[in-house]
Each structure stands twice: as C-alpha cells, then as structure tokens.
Design a protein that fits this description.
Elements: H1 4-15, H2 21-32, H3 37-44, H4 48-69, H5 71-95, H6 98-116
Helix pairs in contact: 1-2, 1-4, 2-4, 3-4, 5-6
C-alpha cells in the first residue's frame, strides 16, 4: 500500500462522490487542504469531535468501497506494470537498431501519453 496520505487522496479521487457534501468538504479540508480539526470546527460552527466523527465516517466509507471494488488497487497495479513495460522498452530501444528501435521508441511515446491521460 502506498503512503497513507497518497492512499487517502486516491480513495477520495476515486470515490469522493459517494460521500455526503459535508463529509466530502471536511475530508477535503482536513486531508487535502491540511486544515486542522479546530480550524474546520471553527468555520463550521461544530465541535472538533463532531468534525472528526464526520471525517472518520467518510474515510470508513471510502475504505469499505475500495475493499468491495478494488479499483484503486487495480489502478496502482496497472501503473506498476506499465512502468515495468516502459523500462524494458527503454532498454530494448537502447540495444537495438533500425525498425525495432523506432518501434520501441513509438511504444514508449504511447505509454507516456497513456500515463498523462
């Protein structure tokens, strides 16, 4: 599993729309905007504990959804595979000539486009 902060961000990116508006807002403010519970509570007019409960419930929903679907894990696995393929193609491009070298370069370029998408 990647670093916890990255993992939470990915869960939020993939499944954030499943949360209520308040859950989405507080989760985003706390983890992505790095606001403290006290700052969120003050601006929202509720207690720090109330903010924490909402964030904790939101994270539980995100994690449960990932357990059921596995979309984030599959996405990461595919990225790792693509990185490996790109690395091998880069090596192949370095040790070949002619049409094989051009083809490897073209595939590397296409993988880069896929990564950017």
């Amino acid at each position: 599993m990647p670093e916890e902060t990255v993992w939470r961000t990915m869960l939020f990116d993939f499944y954030g729309e499943l949360l209520t508006d308040k859950q989405r807002e507080y989760f985003d403010l706390h983890y992505n905007s790095d606001l403290s519970l006290a700052e969120i509570a003050e601006s929202s007019g509720i207690s720090r504990q109330g903010v924490w409960d909402i964030i904790r419930r939101a994270e539980a929903i995100l994690r449960e959804t990932e357990e059921k679907t596995g979309l984030v894990a599959r996405f990461q696995a595919q990225r790792e595979i693509l990185r490996g393929v790109e690395s091998k193609l880069t090596r192949l491009e370095q040790i070949t000539d002619g049409e094989a070298k051009a083809l490897a370069g073209e595939i590397i370029h296409r993988l880069g486009e896929l990564r950017q998408a």
